[in-house]
Design a protein that fits this description.
By secondary structure, the chain is mostly helical. It is 77% helix and 0% strand.
Length: 111
């Protein structure tokens, strides 16, 4: 499961539709910015912190599969094995998760 739709719905219910739309926009902007940093040649220098931030953001908005990959990568980087983190898999998972999320968002907003 890429997206935990129950988590998404709970968040929408907790903060309301208007605030939810703002949170989604902010989330996507911030995560897209951080994802861009993973593509930089020096990403390994900050890999643990980048993946930690992405994991937390992903969990807040129900990006389950992406959060799991970020968590695994964060742990590897913390143990000095950052070079073993498959950044292509992380980037692909985010792209697929974002696509699925955006495609299903109207259903959550309309609820």
């Amino acid at each position: 499961m890429m997206i935990d739709w129950d988590r998404v719905q709970d968040l929408r219910d907790e903060i309301g539709a208007d605030a939810f739309a703002e949170v989604v926009e902010l989330f996507l902007d911030e995560v897209d910015t951080e994802i861009g940093k993973l593509r930089l040649p020096n990403a390994g220098q900050n890999l643990e912190a980048l993946l930690h931030f992405l994991k937390g953001s992903a969990l807040n908005l129900g990006f389950t599969a992406f959060a799991d990959l970020c968590h695994s990568g964060e742990r590897a980087a913390a143990m000095g094995a950052g070079a073993s983190v498959d950044l292509t898999a992380v980037l692909d998972c985010y792209r697929h998760s974002k696509s699925e999320f955006v495609a299903g968002l109207d259903r959550v907003i309309a609820a």
